[in-house]
Structure formats: C-alpha cells, structure tokens
Amino acid sequence: MKHLLGTDGLDPDTARVILDTAEGLKKTLLGREVKKLPTLRGRTVITLFYEDSTRTRVSFEIAGKWMSADVVNVSAKGSSVKKGESLRDTALTLAAAGADCVIVRHPASGAAHRLASWLSHTNTSVVNAGDGTHEHPTQALLDMATLRERLGGVEGRRIAIVGDVLHSRVARSNVHLLTSFGAEVVLVAPPTLLPTAVGDWPVGAAGSLVVSHDLDPELPTLDAVMLLRVQAERMHGGFFPSAREYSIAYGLNEARASLLPEHAVVLHPGPMLRGMEISHAVADSARAAITEQVTNGVHVRMAVLYHLLAGEEDAA
C-alpha cells in the first residue's frame, strides 16, 4: 500500500488487515507506562493541514510519536502558503526535504489524490486526512474499529448515519466501508442535507444503502447510530429553519435514545454540537462510544502508518 486516499478503492481484505493491526497495537500498548515502539524510527511524517483540526491532527501526531517517527506539523497559516505557494510546490518541497509520509487535510475535494499524483515519482506516501466533502478514510476505519469492539462486527447490522450528509466526508467514507463489510446503512437527513446523487455513491456488494427523512421509525431497528456535525461553515443559504427545529427533528435526546435496542451504540466524529445534534445526557451515557472513537483513532492511525512505511519491510 503506497497511499491511503479513500475507502472507495480500499478492498475489505486490506481494511481488515489494518483493523487487525490496530487491535494488536492497542493490546501491545495496554498497561504500558511508556507508550513507545521503535517501529518507525528514522522515518519522517509531516501533517499538512489547510483546515483546523483537533482529533485527527493530534491522533496522527501521537500515532507517529508512539512509533518513534519524527513528526513535523505544517499548517497553512504558518507556512509559505500564506505567501501564495501552491499545494503542488508545497508537496514537492516537503518530499524533497525528506518526508516519508505527508498527511494532508484540505478544503478542496480531490486534493489528496492530486497530491499523490504529484508525488508519484517519489517514495513519499500520502494519507487523506479529509478533503473537502469527499472522503476521510481513517475516520471510517476508526469508526469500524469501535463498532467491532462494541458489536463484534458489522455484518448484518443496521447502522444509521444521521444529519448533514450533504457536506460530510465522514458519511461518504463510512458508507463504502460499512457496506463492504456487510452492513445495511441508513442515511437519515432532511432532503436539503442529502446529496442529489446519493444513489450513485459506491456501495459494497456485501451490504446495502437506504435513505430516510424520518429518524424516529428507524431507531428501534438500529444496532448503531452515527450522528454527524452540522457543518455551518460549508453552508451558504438556509438548509433548515433553525437549530431548534433541527434538534427537534434529528437531534438524539434521551427520549429518542430510549427507542434504541439495549445493545445499540452511539457514535459521533466530533466536534459535537451538544444540545443540537445530541443531548448532554446521551453524549455522556454508557451507550455512547465517542471517547472510544478517539482512542481507537490513535491505534488505527498507527496501523495505517505502519502499513505505509514499514509493513512490507517487516514482511520481508
């Protein structure tokens, strides 16, 4: 594996290997006072973020450092991007400086793919940490890791993705990955927050995708519900009347959570808009796996870096 650019094109066997590696790394580090492995010693990992981030950026940095890589953070606000340097020139500069892996987040859909094509003549790997409204593959992988822990797997499970599907790269990556592993995914959103071409999204042959505009009837049949952040920064115009009305129709409060089966899991990629997308009581309840997602994110990103930078060497 040279790059990780999306879950569309990531075959289930490769995804399963990454998830199994993440699980193994988590067990290896469990109880260790010093969480440090020598696996990527001598490797240089650069995070190149053109958008703000807490969870993704921090977890990639921790993942690299726990594997003894040298991690360098580059933000658009503090780099030559502010002077007008193009993404292409920035990428070539980082590769020439010795980057073994560039982890990129960019507001333009397809940016990670373009970056990978510009670096095709180098040994530098590219990881998509979110490109516009397109994909966020490591988020989908950590969500899958969390569901495997809580549910034992997703084959035959019914999983709802609720909220701002239109602007969500998390939803797109999860739809392909979850259906590839045999899940039925239900997209629940108002018509204004669903893409017009949602029926053309890539769906794994083992699973299925359905669309609903009404959350309440779906809740008793769900094994997991994944709430999405309402991305106001990407909205130009009125997509729903008000935050209050959105919360009434699609927010997961205590009354709605009581309709879920006892085993059902609540996920959220963060940051949460408490009181709108999810109530405080549900976010902090035992059925919520939101902090577990963050923990699993570190191990999944460790596994991704391992397979990009060291996996083939170790196999040899």
Automatic annotation (TrEMBL):
<dbReference type="GO" id="GO:0006520">
    <property type="term" value="P:amino acid metabolic process"/>
</dbReference>
<dbReference type="InterPro" id="IPR036901">
    <property type="entry name" value="Asp/Orn_carbamoylTrfase_sf"/>
</dbReference>
<dbReference type="InterPro" id="IPR006131">
    <property type="entry name" value="Asp_carbamoyltransf_Asp/Orn-bd"/>
</dbReference>
<feature type="binding site">
    <location>
        <position position="139"/>
    </location>
    <ligand>
        <name>carbamoyl phosphate</name>
    </ligand>
</feature>
<feature type="binding site">
    <location>
        <position position="55"/>
    </location>
    <ligand>
        <name>carbamoyl phosphate</name>
    </ligand>
</feature>
<dbReference type="GO" id="GO:0016597">
    <property type="term" value="F:amino acid binding"/>
</dbReference>
<keyword id="KW-0808">Transferase</keyword>
<feature type="binding site">
    <location>
        <position position="229"/>
    </location>
    <ligand>
        <name>L-aspartate</name>
    </ligand>
</feature>
<feature type="binding site">
    <location>
        <position position="136"/>
    </location>
    <ligand>
        <name>carbamoyl phosphate</name>
    </ligand>
</feature>
<comment type="function">
    <text>Catalyzes the condensation of carbamoyl phosphate and aspartate to form carbamoyl aspartate and inorganic phosphate, the committed step in the de novo pyrimidine nucleotide biosynthesis pathway.</text>
</comment>
<dbReference type="InterPro" id="IPR006132">
    <property type="entry name" value="Asp/Orn_carbamoyltranf_P-bd"/>
</dbReference>
<comment type="similarity">
    <text>Belongs to the aspartate/ornithine carbamoyltransferase superfamily. ATCase family.</text>
</comment>
<feature type="binding site">
    <location>
        <position position="169"/>
    </location>
    <ligand>
        <name>L-aspartate</name>
    </ligand>
</feature>
<keyword id="KW-0665">Pyrimidine biosynthesis</keyword>
<dbReference type="Pfam" id="PF02729">
    <property type="entry name" value="OTCace_N"/>
</dbReference>
<dbReference type="InterPro" id="IPR002082">
    <property type="entry name" value="Asp_carbamoyltransf"/>
</dbReference>
<feature type="binding site">
    <location>
        <position position="270"/>
    </location>
    <ligand>
        <name>carbamoyl phosphate</name>
    </ligand>
</feature>
<feature type="binding site">
    <location>
        <position position="56"/>
    </location>
    <ligand>
        <name>carbamoyl phosphate</name>
    </ligand>
</feature>
<dbReference type="Pfam" id="PF00185">
    <property type="entry name" value="OTCace"/>
</dbReference>
<protein>
    <recommendedName>
        <fullName>Aspartate carbamoyltransferase</fullName>
        <ecNumber>2.1.3.2</ecNumber>
    </recommendedName>
</protein>
<dbReference type="InterPro" id="IPR006130">
    <property type="entry name" value="Asp/Orn_carbamoylTrfase"/>
</dbReference>
<feature type="domain" description="Aspartate/ornithine carbamoyltransferase Asp/Orn-binding">
    <location>
        <begin position="156"/>
        <end position="308"/>
    </location>
</feature>
<dbReference type="GO" id="GO:0006207">
    <property type="term" value="P:'de novo' pyrimidine nucleobase biosynthetic process"/>
</dbReference>
<feature type="binding site">
    <location>
        <position position="83"/>
    </location>
    <ligand>
        <name>L-aspartate</name>
    </ligand>
</feature>
<feature type="binding site">
    <location>
        <position position="271"/>
    </location>
    <ligand>
        <name>carbamoyl phosphate</name>
    </ligand>
</feature>
<feature type="domain" description="Aspartate/ornithine carbamoyltransferase carbamoyl-P binding">
    <location>
        <begin position="2"/>
        <end position="149"/>
    </location>
</feature>
<comment type="pathway">
    <text>Pyrimidine metabolism; UMP biosynthesis via de novo pathway; (S)-dihydroorotate from bicarbonate: step 2/3.</text>
</comment>
<comment type="subunit">
    <text>Heterododecamer (2C3:3R2) of six catalytic PyrB chains organized as two trimers (C3), and six regulatory PyrI chains organized as three dimers (R2).</text>
</comment>
<dbReference type="GO" id="GO:0044205">
    <property type="term" value="P:'de novo' UMP biosynthetic process"/>
</dbReference>
<dbReference type="GO" id="GO:0005829">
    <property type="term" value="C:cytosol"/>
</dbReference>
<feature type="binding site">
    <location>
        <position position="105"/>
    </location>
    <ligand>
        <name>carbamoyl phosphate</name>
    </ligand>
</feature>
<dbReference type="GO" id="GO:0004070">
    <property type="term" value="F:aspartate carbamoyltransferase activity"/>
</dbReference>
